[in-house]
Amino acid sequence: MPQITFLPGKLVCEVERGTSIPDAAEKCGAVISFPCACKGACAKCIIKVERGTLEFMDNGKLSEDLKRQGFVLACRSKVMEDVEVLIPSSVNEEMGQFSDALSRTGVNEDFFPKTQDLKPLALCEKLTVATAELLDGLGDYDRLVQAVRRQGSADAVDLPLDLLQRLPDILRENEGEVFIWRADIENTSHIVDITADVPLIDYGAAIDIGTTTVAIQLVDVARGKVIDTITQYNAQIDRGADIISRITYAKNHDRIREMRSLVLSTINRGISDLCGRNGGIPGSAIRNITIAGNTTMVHLFMGIRPEYIRLEPYTPTVMSVPFYRAGALGVEINPNALVWISPNVGSYVGGDITSGILCTDFTKDVEEVCLFIDIGTNGEIVLGNGDFLMGCACSAGPAFEGGGIERGMRASTGAIERVEVDCKTGECRYFVIGGGPAKGICGSGLISLLAQLLDAGIIDLRGKLDRSGKYQTIKVVGKTARYIIVPPGESDPGVYLTEHDIDNFIRAKAAIFSACVTLLNSVGMDFDAIDKFYIAGGFGRYIAIDKAQTLGLLPCIDEEKFLYIGNSSLSGAFMSLLSEKHRNKVAELANRITYIDLSTEAGYMDEYVAAMFLPHTNMNLFRRKESGVETC
To answer: For 121-195, which CATH class?
Structure first.
């Protein structure tokens, strides 16, 4: 069998002849990013053949110069003989600049649980278990069950084996005086832990499993306080930048296990880091946990085949996830903790949205019409008030996260996050995350740049660049043109924007806007009917409203109506961790939402096509706004 060596880590393994590079990398433990799930569409899995040859199925994505240097696309290459390949460093491997205060950004504190509402799933309480009497015919377990029944309302008691094994010593340490964590569900008390002493802090964890990032909060559940927060990239991102790519990649049991392992490693690493930097808390001290995530993320977290989510009739395996113990799910906290997962509504409106709308007036019986949108690789939208709720989702693609953009990257060190364009010369001043050299452009920078180019007339309504020669920043390459943001160096291609990049952005913004219009049309409303427009998500909080309106991403309604609420999914998970009232409210909201499948909705494609211009084919929907630079 041929041998493959991955550099720079010198990972070596033997594989069958004809093995694809993605499969060979998985076997060797080599990390290569496949943002388009091995479709050969993004050209970001580039590797260099240092010795030997690969069978490369060229699809025209690489330049002739790169191919002469030995570069190939990993996802379109197979191992046929002994070979040595180099995995270049990527700008997408930079650490992100995440805020550890995302959860409450913009969220009205009135939505959060009050002291009287604090009731986690597993309550800690003092329990007195009768001491053993000679010939009383009762074992330690029997006396424990009697005590639990006296103190609670459930008849049955579910006691994990490891607690039964420890029970004799715990009961005798303080003559039957113990502290117990129990979760009463229907008619059963599920015991999570038993200790002889009460801890100083009763710990819980709230988790948002996002397509791009995983955010975790360590919480003092007795006091209702966040102790610490951590946000990391979801390790699955190297196997697909968006939901559909992840589903496509997880095509067999081995890959489903891989995807589950990747997200679990992200979660467990985050929990370990939080515990470590807060005094070395043992993971077993976390006895309550809530999780919010979109439908696909929940399926992959649980190791469930996600393929049927995208196949007609678009049926997820589970909407409301049953309770499972943390140990069975592989989450490294107290293994007996019951995991509460926010319920899904449909294939593409999941628990991140039902959790997120806890941060809005949807929780109140009000007449005001609200529209909630979580903008990311998917755009999830909920419309309604106290009388009705409707939800839908559209596939925006990864453009807002830098995917599908030739020099795009996520919002990390080296990313251009904002620009200022001189409308006379076409030159721009740019601002970089971290303040160092620019390596690429992220979503907020893309919106900032395109809005000003449109205002200046440097791009037209179709996203085509001016080819008149008036602007030195525009270079024509073959049949296409590119706008130069950062000029190239000797070995650096610089940062630029191509017309293909602009087209990808237009598709993404058209998907979002047309989904909003379609949802409003379904109830006979327009944007003027909206009283509050909630923008959620890590990317959403960086959107400049006026720039987004200029491009047709957001409607031209009064800016005062827009409310940023940050990572509302994590905020909702935090609320649900602390309060039974809020857990019940999530379930109620999920049951109230009427799910609209845009793929079967009449008129959606017409709205999408109409939105494929900057800002739109119907200019009456948009008023042009000054962009903050000199009016041209």
So the answer is: alpha beta
